[in-house]
């Protein structure tokens, strides 16, 4: 298997924004600082993606745990001789409450993950705005 098939992002690893921006000849623009800004942007996106991946992995792990717990409960009910023709009147209510609690937990995990990833991007956006303001600030007289 070729390296590009193993890692579809391998081409990006060799990308050097400093070289690209140093070749630009734009008056009043410092290519080094522009390259550094873009590097910070890429780092922020990478950190946000890493945080999102970690969070989604935790959600998937928790979903598997919930499934295993449910399967174990069903197995214990079957072993205990619970008959479907004579169900426990509270069983449906308890099952629904547990399912809702599990869904709430998973939704909160996803919300937290998304918020943390967004906050990393939002922080970088604010830094970009501040850098932009400083770069184009009027000189004081």
Structural description of this entry:
It contains 5 helices and no strands. It is 77% helix and 0% strand. It has 141 residues and is mostly helical.
Topology, please?
Elements: H1 3-6, H2 10-13, H3 17-22, H4 31-79, H5 91-135
Helix pairs in contact: 4-5
Mean pLDDT: 82
What is the helix/strand order? HHHHH
User: Strand-residue fraction?
Assistant: under 5%
Tally of helical segments:
5
Number of beta strands: 0
The percent of residues in helical segments reads over 70%
**What Rg do the Cα atoms give?**
26 Å
Major sheet size, sense and barrel closure: none
End-to-end separation in angstroms reads 63 Å
Structural class by secondary-structure content: mainly alpha
Features:
77% helix, mainly alpha, 5 helices, 141 residues
Short recap of the structure:
The chain is mainly alpha-helical and 141 residues long. Helices cover 77% and strands 0% of the residues.
